[in-house]
Design brief:
Blueprint (H helix, E strand, L loop, with lengths): L2 H13 L6 H13 L7 H7 L6 H15 L1 H14 L1 H5 L2 H7 L8 H8 L3 H22 L5 H10 L7 H16 L1
């Protein structure tokens, strides 16, 4: 979509009351007059900055003038609007149309939310069930020696649990192995 068509689409939004104030419009006109490439000549800038005319009329005339000049002039207007009134620039109807996603495109933020919408409690519940099933399978398997392997694991546990707790667990395992 060309900038001229976008400007035509946004014209009503921009010229409606209290969207742009006098100072912002003057800054935009001065930027279009002074920044390279010069979009407005000195005479045109003075005409659009005339304080005798209403702001609505000056802004409407400016937008129509830019549309007649071509796509490059309209693009520079959008650049000046973005610099001087960024919030208004982001709220333009043509920007909202450009921001709407392609219906065939996958929205990764939404997809990520859909995968993680159950929260940490669900994760802990699933992890507990999986750990319980693994422990049950490990203990019920007749080919493994649970006590010997548990002793080896607990031998490396001073990092994870305290030395006193490890000694108590080792004594408990020795008592179980004697019975």
């Amino acid at each position: 979509q060309s900038y001229c068509h976008r400007l035509q689409h946004d014209m009503y939004f921009l010229t409606s009351t209290s969207r742009l104030n006098e100072q912002v419009v003057d800054k935009i006109i001065l930027q279009l007059n002074r920044v390279y490439p010069q979009i407005l000549t000195n005479e045109e800038a003075e005409k659009f900055r005339n304080p005798r005319a209403s702001l609505h009329t000056r802004l409407s005339d400016l937008l129509k003038h830019l549309q007649k000049k071509g796509d490059r002039h309209c693009q520079e207007f959008y650049r000046a609007l973005q610099i001087n009134a960024e919030q208004l620039f982001n709220d333009l109807p043509s920007r909202k149309i450009l921001k709407t996603p392609d219906p065939t495109e996958i929205d990764t933020d939404k997809e990520q939310y859909m995968l993680n919408d159950r929260g940490p409690v669900f994760f802990l519940a699933c992890f507990s069930v999986a750990a319980g099933l693994a422990l049950f399978w490990y203990c019920c398997n007749s080919e493994t020696q649970v006590i010997g392997r548990a002793r080896r694991i607990l031998g490396f546990s001073p990092i994870i649990i305290g030395r006193h707790v490890r000694n108590i667990c080792m004594l408990y395992l020795e008592d179980i192995s004697r019975n």
